[in-house]
Design a protein that fits this description.
This protein is mainly α and 498 residues long. The protein is built from 22 helices and 6 strands. The radius of gyration is 22 Å and the shape is globular.
């Protein structure tokens, strides 16, 4: 068993499903490590790989596509992505399983690996600057995982060193306390990480971008804008010249827009049940009509305003991001791969997603060949963060316009109209966020922080006639998994779930 745990740490056996006690009780692992591991740089390299490997779990990568099915963007046809359809309909219980438990377990497994690494890395004999870079990477990953937990559960138990089983049975810290620790981790990471382009390892821009996003969620507008602007002014990152190439393996290599991603590579680190089979073949995630309608015509006007809109063929004269994100039933996958190929799945809404689906992997049936990287943070997102924070702090100045217009110009969309008010610019930024980042896992959290989710979700009727529900008294948070409540008597269940 001890040898088995070592292999878990260094990532040689891949991703395992672990109970809470498994991923919190690491003392035997630590005892062995102090004797036989953590000696030289090769040990540190293997341990760092083990920390990163947890990010390849579906829960922390490709399941994030399915977060859009908790928003007004998408409908999930089956149990893929953490069984999100019942959750979207307000059927959320501590015993629900799926996303309710998988996020908690996957994130804390990763946090445990981070804590073990940080506790032991100083024992390794290696060059100090490189050691600090490794520390920075792991501090960034711990911050990312704790931020993910706060997005779903609010306050959670806070561990910054590996606890024993008894030490793990603590009451959750407040969300504010957890976020303060996350920001402290990021500030330390920023001091360690190089100001380099992203190459699969977290860099300074990764930590700054995550910090900007967290400050945005806290509505600390001035600080969020300043932090995002540090990324912009660094000149390290830029928009990709091709929007669709961002989501295909060939286009992701050395792409200047990617700031942090989960790396996949054939044959050893391909994505099991990645986008080609789940999105391309099973069509498990279907876009809603109101997302399709959100895309403007090429004159920059909405479909209700533009003379270019053709209801007979609504694909004509539209924002190019529509065709790079969504396909209609009557052209489906066939148009994507340039041949007569009948998709194996069906769509409940009349539309398919094609973002992240690689035509080079067709036919997609039971393909486990997906090696596209899942993007968590990219430069367009930073521009959107900056524009939103700056507009909320001081209104729509030239830098706000520049940030949004640069994103639009990349796909040959016209610039925003001049002289927008602060409220008008807010709506434009929210529109741009929705169409630019569709199916990337952001929309659900945006609707929650804007507080618009309370009105938007109950207005949706899913295919089959099920009305969606959102109870503001409870649904801003998920419940803690029942297994954690049973294990830890000090953990207080979130309001509304007792």
């Amino acid at each position: 068993m001890k040898k088995f745990n070592i292999y878990i740490l260094i990532g040689l056996l891949g991703i395992l499903s672990m109970s809470c006690e498994d991923f919190l009780d690491k003392q035997p692992l630590d005892q062995i490590s102090s004797e036989t591991f953590w000696k030289d740089e090769s040990d540190a390299d293997m341990a760092l790989a083990g920390v990163y490997s947890q990010m390849r779990s579906n829960t922390l990568s490709w399941d994030r596509n399915f977060y859009d099915a908790l928003s007004d963007n998408s409908f999930a046809r089956n149990a893929e992505g953490g069984n999100v359809s019942p959750l979207a309909q307000g059927i959320i219980e501590p015993s629900s399983g799926g996303l309710v438990s998988s996020v908690y377990n996957a994130a804390f497994t990763g946090i445990s690996r981070c804590n073990i690494f940080l506790q032991n890395i100083d024992n390794v004999e290696m060059e100090e600057t490189k050691k600090n870079i490794y520390k920075g990477e792991v501090l960034f990953l711990r911050a990312y995982l704790y931020f993910t937990l706060t997005q779903f559960y609010g306050g959670v138990p806070l561990y910054i060193t590996p606890p024993t089983i008894e030490e793990s049975k603590v009451k959750q810290s407040t969300k504010e306390t957890v976020i303060n620790q996350v920001l402290a981790d990021l500030d330390e990471a920023i001091g360690y990480l190089p100001d380099d382009v992203y190459d699969g390892h977290a860099v300074k821009g990764s930590a700054l971008s995550l910090k900007a996003k967290i400050l945005l969620h806290q509505e600390k507008w001035v600080e969020a804008a300043e932090t995002a602007n540090l990324v912009i002014q660094s000149g390290t990152f830029s928009l990709s010249s091709s929007y669709p190439d961002l989501f295909l393996a060939a286009g992701q290599e050395n792409n200047p827009e990617i700031i942090f991603s989960t790396k996949f590579l054939n044959p050893d680190y391909n994505a099991w049940y990645g986008p080609d089979i789940r999105i391309g073949w099973w069509s498990s995630l279907n876009p809603f009509q109101n997302l399709v309608d959100e895309y403007e015509c090429t004159d920059g006007l909405s479909i209700s305003e533009s003379p270019l809109y053709n209801p007979v063929d609504p694909r004509e004269n539209r924002d190019p991001r529509l065709s790079h994100t969504i396909r209609f039933w009557n052209n489906g996958i066939e148009e994507l791969i340039g041949g007569s190929y009948d998709p194996g799945g069906v769509t409940e809404t009349g539309y398919f997603y094609v973002k992240y689906v690689d035509p080079n992997n067709a036919p997609f049936d039971y393909s486990i060949k997906s090696e596209q990287d899942f993007i968590h943070l990219r430069y367009a997102d930073v521009l959107l963060m900056y524009a939103e924070a700056k507009n909320e702090a001081s209104g729509p100045d030239a830098t706000v316009y520049n940030a949004i217009n640069n994103i639009r110009d990349r796909v040959d969309m016209p610039p925003l109209p001049a002289d927008l008010t602060k409220d008008q610019m807010r709506e434009r930024i929210r529109h741009e966020s929705r169409v630019e980042l569709a199916m990337e896992g952001h929309r659900y959290f945006d609707l929650k922080r804007w507080k618009t989710i309370e009105n938007i979700i109950p207005a949706i009727t899913d295919p089959g006639g099920n009305q969606r529900q959102f109870d503001p008294a409870k649904h801003y948070l998920f419940p803690f998994p029942q297994s954690e409540i049973d294990r830890n008597e000090n953990l207080d269940q979130n309001p509304g779930y007792n």
